[in-house]
Specification:
This protein is α/β, with parallel strands linked by helices and 196 residues long. It has a domain of 116 residues: 3-Layer(aba) Sandwich (Oxidized Rhodanese, domain 1). The protein is built from six helices and six strands, in the order βαβαβαβαβαβα. Helix 5 links the parallel strand 5 and strand 6.
């Protein structure tokens, strides 16, 4: 981070070409460590200014490392032992219900008891975040309100961060990330998966 010019007092604005669902991991991690970060709403497609075409050599900055914020993370035992709250799967519905199994999925389905809130559903057709009222309704449909403890997961802990950022932005609190995701949970032979 220091070599990229990102220091302790830097505000990072991250973007991608997928409406922020990938860049969300960087933003979530920086925030979890206490740094200021945000997503560019709508991603690269929403940027109307000029794009840099030549590399910029940043001035090194002081970025102080810190330990993983354990309170923001969930572990395998949290999702298998019936942790308090709701476990949210951020993957698309076809991966959640098991009708699609990608080569990266160790098996089809989802963690038993999890609910599905596909992170790409947080975005309007133009790639920008849906209005807060719509986002809150989508989470309310699966039982999440501002008093609900949430653990978010996906395939490998990337797009689950988009749901976590959106929850926070909508005033629904800070959930925890199960970074191992379906890749870890589903990799154990004989571990039960739910379909449908």
């Amino acid at each position: 981070m220091s070599a990229l010019g990102i220091g302790d007092d830097t505000t990072v604005i991250a973007y991608d070409d997928a409406g922020g669902v990938i860049a969300a991991r960087l933003v979530w991690m920086l925030r979890a460590f206490g740094h200021r970060a945000a997503l560019l709403d709508g991603g690269l497609a929403a940027w109307t200014g000029p794009l840099e075409t030549t590399p910029v050599k940043p001035t090194p900055a002081t970025f102080t490392p810190s330990s993983w914020p354990q309170a923001r993370l969930a572990q395998l035992e949290d999702v298998t032992a019936g942790a308090a709250g709701i476990i949210v799967d951020a993957r698309n519905a076809d991966r959640f219900d098991g009708s699609l199994q990608l080569p990266t999925d160790p098996q089809a389905g989802h963690i038993p008891g999890a609910v599905n809130v596909p992170c790409r559903g947080n975005l309007a057709p133009d790639g920008r975040l849906r209005p807060i009222a719509e986002v809150r309704r989508a989470f309310a449909k699966v039982g999440i309100d501002d008093a609900t403890a949430v653990i978010s997961y996906c395939g490998s802990g990337v797009t689950a961060c988009h749901n976590l950022l959106v929850l926070e932005h909508a005033g629904l609190g800070q959930g925890r990330l199960y970074a191992g995701g379906w890749s870890e949970y589903g990799a154990e032979p004989g571990r039960r998966a739910e379909l449908g």
